[in-house]
């Protein structure tokens, strides 16, 4: 397996070197075109003005209604509510080895939903991360000794019907370990009465006379924004929103952190000359992952954002890497993320499955809000037809995969790196893991 990968990387490296002279010529021509185009676009943008669409309005007493009850969000999630397994003596054999096949914990990491409004942690679940032993974890460990990594192997697995024999005896030999992140079902709404006689006024003017609105709690009901027209109502059109500017800054930082194309080739050549195939593959895989994350963000910011990436030539020079390998989807694909996406979940270049648990069709981004556009990704939409999973569509053309519709109780698989697809509409689909719950595992949740 290693030699074909090495030859493939070397082929792209050689092709990259042959293209250097051509890139110089094209870059000079492109620079002239870009300068003229940008100059032509900037001129009207600088002078363009917008009319204020917000009507003038000043809030009065008529804009408020007194609140008699407030609804508080109370956490109710616990190990008991999750019905976690509790080990008893029957869970162990005579040597103290666990034989029940069920973990008494869930994989969980704290996020904002684990903290209350004051920033205090309320979540009773311990933080436990999944971990799969690699060769480096085991290579220095003697027989029977603890792995060198010092960690316990924790691999997500949910028992299915195939895990049991006809008598209901567990035969898969695996430990059921599930993941849990808090959802709306982990909280209960609780109505609390509000005392209308409590003075809540914050006015410090000694001449102020309290009015009824100085007592109790009031909410704005007019639906209007308080606004007085001023100079800010007519300003130059912004070239990018604050959010987009932050994403461009993040992209520039990611590209700065990458080694140059020449540095990568030099390191690969040194490892190849030394005959270090394992080192070669490890270095290539690590750099490839970082380059792909930067490239996918580059695609996501769009053409306007790309023009603001001051170091994009460094990324474009690595085209021989991000076009060197794509996934061939011939029958199965390993999923690393379910209903979550981003660097906190193993990386933006990992395969993601988005499950629609609602009774109506939903867009992918309405389920996973921070999803990239993925213009070059491959998307496979799967319908649930009375319990049978059927491929409804494969798509590589849609510019923004986040706008694609996912059928009720169906799912979409997005392969960020793209690739050739041999599955087609009408094919049957199956999953060997629970795709209905949010989970992630960089080593793969299943296929």
Can you walk through the features of this model?
- The chain is of the alpha+beta class and 447 residues long.
- It is built from 9 helices and 15 strands.
- The strands form 5 sheets. The chain has a 7-stranded mixed beta sheet, with no helix packed on it. A two-stranded antiparallel sheet has the order 1-6. Strands 2-5 form a two-stranded antiparallel sheet.
- Helix 2 links the parallel strand 3 and strand 4.
- Helix 1 packs parallel to helix 5, helix 3 packs antiparallel against helix 5 and helix 4 runs antiparallel to helix 5.
- The chain starts with a helix and ends in a 7-residue tail after the last strand.
- The N terminus is likely disordered.
Order of helices and strands: HEEEHEEEHHHHHHEEEHEEEEEE
Q: Cα distance, first to last residue? A: 21 Å
Q: Determine the strand fraction and express it as a percent band.
A: 5-15%
Task: Tell me the helix content.
Answer: 25-40%
Largest sheet: 7 strands, mixed
Whole-number average pLDDT?
A: 79
Number of E strands: 15
Shape: globular
Rg computed from alpha carbons, rounded to a whole number of angstroms: 28 Å
User: What structural class do helix, strand and pairing data support?
Assistant: alpha+beta
Count the DSSP helices: 9
**Low-confidence segments:** 1-8, 17-50, 236-240, 325-330
Read across the widest sheet, the strand sequence of neighbours is 14-11-10-13-8-7-15
């Amino acid at each position: 397996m290693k030699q074909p990968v090495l030859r493939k990387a070397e082929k792209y490296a050689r092709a990259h070197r042959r293209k250097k002279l051509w890139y110089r010529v094209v870059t000079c021509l492109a620079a002239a075109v870009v300068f003229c185009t940008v100059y032509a676009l900037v001129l009207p943008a600088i002078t363009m003005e917008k009319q204020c669409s917000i009507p003038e309005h000043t809030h009065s007493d008529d804009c408020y209604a007194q609140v008699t009850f407030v609804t508080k969000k109370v956490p109710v999630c616990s190990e008991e509510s999750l019905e976690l397994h509790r080990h008893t003596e029957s869970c162990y054999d005579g040597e103290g080895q666990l034989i029940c096949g069920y973990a008494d914990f869930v994989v969980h990491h704290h996020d904002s939903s684990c903290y209350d409004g004051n920033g205090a942690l309320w979540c009773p679940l311990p933080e436990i991360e999944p971990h799969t032993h690699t060769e480096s974890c085991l290579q220095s460990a003697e027989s029977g000794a603890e792995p060198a990594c010092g960690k316990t192997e924790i691999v997500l697995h949910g028992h299915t019907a195939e895990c049991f024999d006809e008598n209901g005896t567990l035969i898969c030999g695996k430990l059921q370990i599930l993941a849990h992140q808090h959802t709306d079902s982990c909280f209960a709404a609780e109505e609390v009465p509000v005392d209308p006689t409590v003075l809540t006024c914050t006015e410090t003017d000694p001449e102020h006379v309290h009015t009824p609105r100085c007592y109790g709690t009031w909410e704005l009901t007019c639906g209007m924004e308080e606004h007085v027209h001023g100079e800010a109502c007519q300003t130059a059109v912004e070239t990018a929103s604050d959010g987009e500017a932050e994403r461009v800054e993040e992209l520039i930082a990611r590209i700065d952190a990458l080694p140059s194309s020449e540095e990568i080739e030099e390191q690969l050549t040194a490892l190849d000359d030394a005959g270090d195939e394992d080192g070669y593959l490890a270095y290539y895989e690590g750099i490839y992952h970082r380059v792909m994350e930067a490239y996918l963000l580059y695609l996501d910011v769009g053409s306007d954002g790309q023009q603001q990436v001051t170091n994009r030539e460094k990324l474009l020079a690595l085209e021989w890497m991000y076009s060197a390998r794509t996934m061939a989807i011939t029958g199965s694909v390993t999923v690393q993320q379910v209903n979550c996406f981003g660097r906190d979940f193993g990386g933006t270049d990992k395969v993601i499955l988005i499950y629609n648990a609602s009774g109506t069709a939903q867009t992918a981004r309405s389920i996973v809000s921070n999803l990239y556009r993925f213009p070059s990704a491959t998307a496979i939409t799967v319908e649930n037809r009375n319990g049978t999973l059927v491929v409804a569509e494969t798509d590589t053309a849609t510019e923004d995969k986040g706008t694609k519709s996912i059928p009720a109780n169906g799912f979409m698989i997005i392969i960020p790196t793209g690739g050739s697809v041999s599955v087609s509409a009408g094919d049957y689909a199956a999953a060997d893991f629970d795709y209905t719950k949010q989970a992630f595992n960089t080593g793969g949740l299943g296929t």
